[in-house]
Design brief:
Radius of gyration: 22 Å
Oligomer: single chain
Strand order of the largest sheet: 2-8-7-6-5-3-4
CATH superfamily of the largest domain: Type I PLP-dependent aspartate aminotransferase-like (Major domain)
Number of domains: 2
CATH architecture of the largest domain: 3-Layer(aba) Sandwich
CATH class of the largest domain: Alpha Beta
Bound molecules: pyridoxal-5'-phosphate
Strand content: 5-15%
Order of helices and strands: HEHHEHEHEEHEEHEEEHHHEEHEEEH
Shape: globular
Largest sheet: 7 strands, mixed
Helix content: 25-40%
Structural class: alpha/beta
CATH topology of the largest domain: Aspartate Aminotransferase, domain 2
């Protein structure tokens, strides 16, 4: 018996456990200190009323012989949900066939599962800093990884050039952790590059619902030609607070072919073999997100998080701290003041302001010197944290 030795190549994920230990130690040493956590990207508002109603009704259906649903007729998902997603895309001018939409139990699973479609002998391009899952999925499989630096010079949005070589490219926009968001024009450059190099883009649109400024893309399929080179992965976690309910979807276009094979057909084959679909009640809940009432309630929740982001942004503006994100994203990515390193700023902010964030270095080497705050917290606590951050930075001798 031989194990998959690539697991030994994985870097220990120290980030969130290190943060948890540091905060626990600090709290134990300062039991009276009120600590505000703006570190983790989980949502805090409950599910919308329409979603909960749909969950109740679907659960009731499951309790009666006449309305009971067993194995899902298609592992790809119920037509009612795929049609609702089709309409959602049509609302922004993207035409999809329902055969191109696959319901999943969340974006994270599919971001890893999609790699089943690709040979191990491919080079994967990953931005740095990055959502760590892209890297670990490929380390586990033993694929070559090349990093694309994201920094202040390129607005934290790496772009391709003719010398860039790679077969599979991960793009995440709005980005976790930086909040930076590609324009449709910038994605067009990526699409042209991918088509010219026969590469495939895995586009992570988990935060698309936060995009509000014109010109920015919510889907890579807003770009002409993207269906020939891209797969899009999306989630109900951030748009509708499904982090604990679990549902997402992946769009694999029928026009996407490589080496004479249809990736849509390959993915369907993969899913029908290795996946038995998402719970009926969860799919009903997800469909409720796209009803008129559901959309209204969800927009109210998104606006709540947007206000939090604005409150944090206003405090950083007053403090004279450089940051990006926060406008089309729930993440604020700031340059650590006083030339502090990421972890140094983490410790300093915890001690000086009692606020917890995430050190940028935890997302990749290029994140050193930066820090992520999230807008997913409680509004009053976020305001309190923003006030404390501003007051703390003002005490720095050299300002910023
Ligand atoms: N993609 C990105 C960029 C994320 O930040 C996250 C979660 O934080 C996910 C995907 C995972 O989404 P899901 O909850 O649908 O698995």
């Amino acid at each position: 018996m031989k194990v998959n030795k690539h697991y030994a190549e994985l870097e220990e994920s120290y980030l969130f456990s290190t943060i948890a230990h540091k905060v626990a130690d600090y709290q134990a040493a300062h039991p009276d200190k009120d600590i505000i956590r703006l570190g983790i990207g989980d949502v805090t508002l409950p599910l919308a009323k329409s979603v909960v109603k749909a969950l109740h009704e679907a659960s009731e259906e499951q309790g009666h012989k006449e309305t009971f649903h067993g194995y899902i007729p298609s592992e790809q998902g119920y037509p009612f949900l795929r049609e609702a997603i089709q309409k959602y895309y049509a609302g922004r001018g993207v035409e999809l066939d329902t055969a191109e939409i696959f319901i999943s139990d969340g974006a994270k699973s599919d971001l890893g599962n999609l790699l089943d479609l690709f040979d191990v002998d491919n080079t994967v391009l990953v931005p740095d800093p990055v959502y760590p899952v892209y890297v670990d999925d490929n380390v586990m499989a033993g694929r070559r990884i090349a990093y694309m630096p994201a920094n202040a010079d390129n607005g934290f949005l790496p772009m391709p050039n003719d010398s860039l070589k790679g077969d599979i490219v991960y793009l995440c926009s709005p980005n976790n952790p930086t909040g930076a968001t590609y324009t449709v024009d910038q994605l067009k450059v990526w699409v042209d590059w991918a088509k010219a190099h026969k590469a495939v883009i895995l586009f992570d649109a988990a935060y698309e619902c936060f995009v509000s400024e014109p010109g920015l893309a919510r889907s890579i399929f807003e770009v002409e030609g993207a269906k020939e080179c891209a797969i899009e992965v999306c989630s109900f976690s951030k748009i509708a607070g499904f982090t604990g309910t679990r549902c997402g979807y992946t769009v694999v276009p029928q026009a996407l072919e490589r080496e004479g094979m249809s990736l849509n057909k390959m993915w369907l084959r993969r899913q029908t073999t290795k996946f038995n679909g998402v719970a009926y009640i969860v799919q009903r809940a997800a469909a409720a997100v796209f009803t008129e009432e559901g959309m209204k309630e969800i927009q109210e929740n998104l606006d709540y998080y947007r206000r939090n982001a604005a409150v944090i942004g206003a405090a950083l503006d007053k403090a004279g701290v450089w940051y990006c994100g926060g406008k089309n994203s729930p993440y604020i990515w700031l340059k650590c003041p006083g030339n502090m390193g990421s972890w140094q700023f983490f410790d300093w902010l915890l001690e000086t302001a009692g606020v917890v964030g995430t050190p940028g270095e935890g997302f990749g080497a290029c994140g050193e010197g930066y820090f992520r705050l999230t807008a997913f917290g409680d509004a009053d606590r976020t305001k309190e944290a923003a006030d404390r951050i501003l007051a703390a930075i003002k005490t720095l001798p050299s300002g910023c």
